[in-house]
Amino acid sequence: MFLGSQDIQLGVNESLLDTSKVISSMVDGVMARVGAHEEIETLAKYSTVPIINALSDMYHPTQILADIMTLHELYTPAGQQPHDLDPSTTLKNLRMAWVGDGNNVLHSLMLQLPKVGMHLAIATPKGYEPHGAILEQASQNAAEFQTSLTLHHEPKQAIQGANVIVTDTWISMGQEEEKKKRLEAFAGYQLTTEMIQANGAQADWKFLHCLPRKQEEVTDDVFYSPRSHVFQEAENRKWTILACIDQLMVKKGF
Ligand code: NVA
Q1: 210 classed as catalytic
Q2: What pLDDT, in 10s, does the model give residues 117-163?
Q3: Which of 210, 222, 230, 248 is catalytic?
Q4: In the listed set 5, 29, 57, which residue is the last one of a domain according to the structure?
Q5: Is the CB of 101 under 6 A from ligand 1?
């Protein structure tokens, strides 16, 4: 069952509690893309079937599965197969630079990357840092897995030594009215080949972006270059979502 925003106005015509009970009576699992993260928590609280977060304003966990799968494929040594290896071996000690907004995609990366042994250096403009509580949790994860997590306000500080450079839109869903203010705040954050190389990325740096992509955050010479793996990453959204659904079915005993 696909329920788009025209079919179901979550929390508008009906309480989330009631919607959660009705939908979960009809399906074996739900993938929900919401606005405020509290909405998915309410759905999960009252649902009788598993709820997968397909994006909230705080997290984008399924995106990070595709990112990790893509990097795992890219860093699998020649002659070996990704499915024979664990990402915590192929990705260990790689450095990711996030240059952009402290948003939902970044939050999920911050929490997850330590678990595969990756270091993360973040550059955001002042006032656009990741959420404090998530930073705290992510720092604990980094300490537990002995990875580094650093926060900066200059792109070059994050890019220095990076293997993988990542960004996302500066204007996430629901922030459209802040567009003008955000474009001003992110001046100097556009990724270009020249800027990445001048700021000391590793010689074989790679680029990822969760899509959809806007011109302002990254130029075509990066986005469409051989260093960019954004379309492989997009395809991997399919395989990772299928894996999530597969797990859900396993849990249900299918
Ligand atoms: N940060 C973006 C991700 C889009 C897939 C948003 O929330 O709109």
Answers
A1: yes
A2: 999 999 999 999 999 999 999 999 999 999 999 999 999 999 999 99
A3: 210
A4: 57
A5: no
